[in-house]
Design brief:
Blueprint: H1 2-34, E1 45-55, E2 58-60, E3 66-71, E4 78-79, E5 84-88, H2 91-145, H3 153-184, H4 193-210, E6 213-215, E7 220-223, E8 232-233, E9 240-243, E10 248-255, E11 267-272, E12 276-288, E13 314-321, H5 323-328, E14 336-342, H6 373-381
Antiparallel strand pairs: 1-10, 1-14, 2-9, 3-5, 3-8, 4-7, 5-6, 7-9, 10-13, 11-12, 11-14, 12-13
Helix pairs in contact: 2-3, 2-4, 2-6, 4-6
Length: about 400
């Protein structure tokens, strides 16, 4: 019995020793893997393995409601800016555009008729002026003959009435000219208010038609496609997303005790688990989030409930990557990263201070949406060489 107990104790000690050696080896390997020296930095640095790739998730949403007739891209596909992703049924939009084009043509013809009416009324004024002159001459001759008895007093009164009637007709014609001219004064057919309103309606109809084709606002990988053929989609409903591969950064969740020496602009060495330690990304610190990770959690910690336990918080620090390195070794959202920040130089502002450059994003895909209306406007106005002023 003593020999058996001695053997059992010896075996237990050997297993314990082997376990301890394995744990020490794993710890040393982990430290060596995440060591700043491995990433090309000295020991005067801050490093963490709690870091992940983040980026923009650009939603593709329709600006008009419609029924999906074609889907031109699926998850994992790479698309370029401006490529068609989804096509909506455009029949209703084309009919609306035809009605708007007809309304513009009708409005333009009505305005041309108004201009012609002003010219006609001005000619009427000249005619009424001639009638008044003739009536006045007749009255003057009759008054000269009144003393000779060749003209009766009744004829003179008739001549006076004719002058009064001609003068009234001239006044009415001039007022008609003023009224008609008020509708077109200072305008042309193209910039007349009625025509301008019809042009705006046509441009709106053209936009509605153009927006039945959903183009990629940015280039990248398609993700989260949740639209199907024949589906009726509403304005603003998310159909799919695009992840731009050139708009990615690393979020390193540093402990709050590590932030003292970290400065904006400090160089950073980063490795990705997907590439291993042979590929080192070089970046720089650009800022930190406005709060700790727990503060922005779906269920934030309630420290006033009475069961509070102090825990060292982690703060998300944003690290911009070198675009050339990112293009050479593309990353994906959520990949695990190892980060080492060189804190030897501390001239820049601290993370608590403002001073980071704002990142801006833009797309030019939607700038040409209204160009399709120009040809329709030229047809409606009957001016092949000109486009109405916007």
């Amino acid at each position: 019995m003593d020999n058996k107990n001695t053997t059992t104790v010896a075996q237990s000690r050997r297993k314990l020793a082997i376990g301890l050696l394995a744990a020490i080896a794993a710890a040393v390997g982990g430290i060596a893997w995440s060591s700043p020296e491995v990433l090309g930095l000295g020991w005067n640095s801050q490093h963490t393995e709690d870091a992940y790739v983040e980026g923009n998730l650009v939603q593709v949403t329709p600006q008009v409601a419609g029924t999906v007739t074609r889907i031109a891209a699926d998850n994992t596909d790479f698309v370029r800016p401006g490529e068609t992703l989804v096509q909506l049924n455009e029949v209703d939009a084309r009919l609306a555009l035809d009605r708007a084009e007809a309304a513009l043509a009708k409005s333009a013809r009505q305005v041309r008729a108004q201009f012609a009416g002003v010219d006609q009324l001005r000619a009427t004024v000249l005619q009424r002026e001639a009638d008044l002159g003739k009536a006045a001459s007749d009255l003057e001759r009759r008054r000269k003959l009144a003393d000779t008895g060749a003209v009766s007093g009744e004829d003179i009164r008739h001549a006076e009435d004719a002058v009064a009637a001609a003068r009234a007709a001239l006044t009415a014609a001039r007022q008609q000219v003023g009224s008609a001219n008020a509708l077109v004064d200072g305008t042309t057919v193209e910039n007349h208010p009625d025509v301008a309103a019809a042009i705006a309606q046509l441009r709106d109809a053209s936009l509605q038609l153009a927006r039945t084709t959903l183009a990629a606002p940015v280039g990248g990988i398609v993700a989260r496609r949740n639209v199907q053929i024949g589906q009726r989609v509403g304005q603003g409903s998310p159909l799919m997303a695009i992840v731009p591969l050139d708009q990615m950064w690393v979020t390193a969740n540093l402990k709050e005790t590590q932030l003292k020496d970290v400065r904006i602009g400090q160089p950073v060495a980063v490795t990705a688990d997907v590439y291993g330690g042979d590929v080192v990304f070089h970046g720089r610190v650009v800022g930190q989030e406005a709060g700790t990770g727990s503060a922005f959690a779906a269920v934030p910690a309630q420290n006033a409930t009475g069961n509070w336990i102090k825990v060292v918080q982690r703060v998300p620090v944003r690290i911009a990557l070198d675009p050339k390195e990112l293009a050479q070794h593309p990353l994906r959202l959520g990949l695990s990263m190892k980060v080492a920040i060189d804190t030897s130089k501390r001239e820049g502002p601290t993370l608590m201070q403002a001073g980071a450059v704002r990142q801006q994003y833009h797309t030019v895909v939607f700038e040409t949406e209204a160009h399709g209306a120009d040809e329709a406007i030229r047809r409606a106005l009957g001016q092949p060489g000109a486009v109405a002023a916007r």
